[in-house]
Structure formats: structure tokens, C-alpha cells
Design goal:
Strand content of chain B: over 45%
Distance between the termini of chain B: 36 Å
Radius of gyration of chain B: 13 Å
Shape of chain B: globular
Number of helices of chain B: 0
Shape of chain A: globular
Strand content of chain A: over 45%
Structural class of chain A: mainly beta
Radius of gyration of chain A: 14 Å
Structural class of chain B: mainly beta
Number of strands of chain B: 11
Largest sheet of chain A: 6 strands, mixed
Helix content of chain A: under 10%
Order of helices and strands of chain B: EEEEEEEEEEE
Oligomer: heterodimer
Largest sheet of chain B: 7 strands, mixed
Chain lengths: 115, 116
């Protein structure tokens, strides 16, 4: 069975600083990987996804993530954060065996941007 | 485009009462998903449909929960009888098709359920 571990439940950073949100997954087959963002009192919105090909994936709002198969990781990065990036971020995994859209989510990382 | 629409946005009920949550997917989307979000268990997939047919309900917690999709533009998630441990935010999401790995799931704003 798949599983996702987000290593940090909370990450505080200062505005304009870089940030990395860590995600590790466990699966015995090839996976698809996703990062979603949830702003307060809203549903989840897709930031980016890795399906195949280049291991560096660029998403919306200046975020990017790198798929590392040997380390089973899919860390999310942004070189310079803004106050508006304050939100909860979820890493998710799926595969063709379980179902390409049967997403298993991590517990989430709350990103807080301080001025 | 209105996005995924859920109603009500907030529901407060008493233990033992029946609760019905509603979802209207994005027009043209053939797949619909119901999720539950709690502090303890995070975000869990409960059930998903393709072309109005339930494909996988292995995440439904128990028989008190049921979901239906009578047509392409409407789905319900029902809890009968409700219990305090059902308190959570319930999300509905839709996508073009579960058969296409590249499709994105679009989430609704959620229904916050409180069972007293």
C-alpha cells in the first residue's frame, strides 16, 4: 500500500526567504506525485504534479518540486515566499495499480510567512 | 466556470440525526470523489464515481455512510445516524475521468459538519 510522510507539520519562514517542504512516499510500484495547497476555509488546489519525464516539475505561484526516485522524495521548493503563500500544503501519491486518481494524502504542512 | 459546488457549507446537527451533504461537479467532468478531512486522520478518500457508477467505496468508514450519484450533475453523501466522531470537513472533487492519469481533481470548498 502507498503512504506519504510530510516530515514537518509546521514551517515558519520570513517573507522573501526560500522554503522547502519535505515529502517522502512509500510504494512498491511507479507512482504519480502531487502537491496541493489549501488556503483557509477553502478546498484544495493543485500546485503541481509529476507523472513522468523530467524530475523537476514547475507549478503555479513560483513553486517547483523535484522527484527523487532513489530517495523516494518529492520536496516542494520556492526561492522567495510571499505573505500570500501562507496556507497548508499537502503532498499526495497515486499509482496505476490502485488507480491513477486514487490519491493518498500526507498529513499536511502548515506554512506560515512572517513579515 | 462555477467550479465544484457543495452545500451546505456548514451543518450542525445532533447525534442520531440524518445528514445529507450535496455536491455539483464541474460540468463535463465524469468522475466525482468524496473526501473527509479531520485533524486525527488527515484527508481520506471515501468513495469515487465514474460516469455516475461507484467504482471504489473502500474508504467509506461504515454502513452509516452512503453515497449516490443519480445523474452527472449531482451527488449526495448521507450519514444516518450521525455520531460526534463524524464531525469533519467533507470535500467533493471532480475530474474529467479516472481513466486518464493526467487529469486534475478540482475540489469544492467543503462542508464543515459538526455533530453534537
Amino acid at each position: 500500500a502507498q503512504s506519504v510522510t510530510q516530515l514537518d507539520s509546521q514551517v515558519p519562514v520570513f517573507e522573501e526567504a526560500p522554503v522547502e517542504l519535505r515529502c517522502n512516499y512509500s510504494s512498491s510500484v511507479s507512482v504519480y506525485l502531487f502537491w496541493y495547497v489549501q488556503y483557509p476555509n477553502q478546498g484544495l488546489q493543485l500546485l503541481l504534479k509529476y507523472l513522468s519525464g523530467s524530475t523537476l516539475v514547475k507549478g503555479i505561484n513560483g513553486f517547483e518540486a523535484e522527484f527523487n526516485k532513489s530517495q523516494t522524495s518529492f520536496h516542494l521548493r520556492k526561492p522567495s515566499v510571499h505573505i500570500s503563500d501562507t496556507a497548508e500544503y499537502f503532498c499526495a501519491v497515486s499509482d496505476l495499480v490502485q488507480g491513477a486518481q486514487k490519491l493518498v494524502f500526507g498529513q499536511g504542512t502548515r506554512l506560515t510567512i512572517n513579515p | 466556470d462555477a467550479g465544484v459546488i457543495q452545500s451546505p457549507r456548514h451543518e450542525v446537527t445532533e447525534m442520531g440525526q440524518e445528514v445529507t451533504l450535496r455536491c455539483k461537479p464541474i460540468s463535463g467532468h465524469n468522475s466525482l470523489f468524496w473526501y473527509r478531512q479531520t485533524m486525527m486522520r488527515g484527508l481520506e478518500l471515501l468513495i469515487y464515481f465514474n460516469n455516475n457508477v461507484p467504482i471504489d467505496d473502500s474508504g467509506m468508514p461504515e454502513d452509516r455512510f452512503s453515497a449516490k450519484m443519480p445523474n452527472a450533475s449531482f451527488s449526495t453523501l448521507k450519514i444516518q445516524p450521525s455520531e460526534p466522531r463524524d464531525s469533519a470537513v467533507y470535500f467533493c472533487a471532480s475530474s474529467l475521468s479516472i481513466l486518464t492519469s493526467t487529469d486534475t481533481q478540482y475540489f469544492g470548498p467543503g462542508t464543515r459538519l459538526t455533530v453534537l
